[in-house]
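Dear H.,

Thanks for agreeing to be a second pair of eyes. The structure we're designing against is below in token form, covering all 287 positions.
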């Protein structure tokens, strides 16, 4: 019987991973940062040997991109060495690892979408630390790269855009960074699918529809029934204050491995976006 361990279970993706696994009747244990600090190798082994999973979906990470840039040692300790600790612990109990990675492993200079086999070249401490985590995986494991993640739990750009729209007439978002928005519930369902299918190698899992952050902000306002003309485009170079970490200008991930393997692609991002916005606004109206 499949026994699943989810690290990072308190995050926006981890929460959905646990919910998906439980909804499918899987035996699933989710551990949050409070339960396990993966930087501690001995603690990681203790938790994994206690649970004795057959599969580990490793979603625990330090994802604060700008904070990673100012503390690269911590980023490497968590995202790089911590991921190696998870793999080492998995080997002790015969478990496979599905590692959740990121579009930030690419430098963003490619003029077309990135496929799984494209050369990596991260330009930020966060990206470098996540790539170190990728390199910790073995041939029996799988790497799932996601991008621009939004969900119900925790902070994300959908919530930020709605909050700004409530307090400001005009919103400014960059129009020179492009990606595939990915919604945590859709991504979690597919990651569990892939885990149960015993896939190996690298997979890009995103919702469809490439946009800039400017275009995405407009879509959020449309989903909320607000005027998208309130959003104006700016360039990354004009952000004040400037962001510490460089962002890839192009982080569109083509889901080629899924296509080649015959998996249906996830919905256009506007479908889960509308679902999330409706939920957020409904709960906001209750309060």
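And this is the sequence the design step returned. I haven't edited it by hand at all.
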């Amino acid at each position: 019987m499949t026994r699943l361990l989810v690290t990072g279970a308190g995050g926006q993706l981890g929460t959905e991973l646990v919910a998906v696994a439980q909804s499918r009747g899987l035996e699933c244990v989710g551990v949050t940062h409070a339960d396990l600090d993966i930087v501690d190798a001995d603690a990681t082994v203790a938790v994994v040997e206690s649970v004795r999973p057959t599969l580990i979906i490793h979603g625990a990470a330090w994802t604060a991109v700008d904070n990673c840039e100012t503390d690269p040692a911590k980023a490497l300790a968590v995202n790089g060495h911590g991921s190696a600790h998870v793999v080492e612990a998995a080997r002790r109990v015969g478990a496979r690892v599905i590692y959740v990675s990121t579009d930030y492993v690419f430098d963003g200079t490619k003029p077309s979408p990135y496929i799984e086999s494209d050369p990596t070249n991260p330009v930020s401490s966060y990206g470098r630390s996540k790539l170190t985590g990728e390199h910790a995986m073995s041939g029996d494991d799988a790497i799932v790269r996601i991008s621009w993640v939004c969900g119900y739990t925790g902070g994300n750009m959908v919530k930020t855009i709605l909050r700004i729209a409530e307090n400001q007439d005009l919103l400014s978002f960059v129009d020179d960074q492009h990606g595939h928005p990915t919604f945590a519930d859709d991504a979690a369902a597919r990651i569990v699918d892939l885990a149960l299918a015993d896939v190996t190698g690298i997979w890009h899992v995103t919702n469809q529809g490439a946009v800039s952050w400017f275009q995405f902000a407009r879509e959020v306002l449309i989903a909320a029934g607000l005027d998208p003309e309130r959003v104006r485009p700016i360039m990354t170079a004009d952000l004040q204050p400037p962001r510490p970490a460089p962002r890839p200008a192009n982080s569109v991930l083509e889901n080629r491995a899924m296509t080649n393997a015959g998996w249906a692609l996830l919905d256009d991002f506007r479908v889960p976006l509308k679902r999330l916005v409706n939920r957020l606004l409904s709960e906001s109206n209750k309060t």
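Two observations from my side: The mean pLDDT is 97. The chain has one domain: 3-213+240-286.

Warmly,
E.
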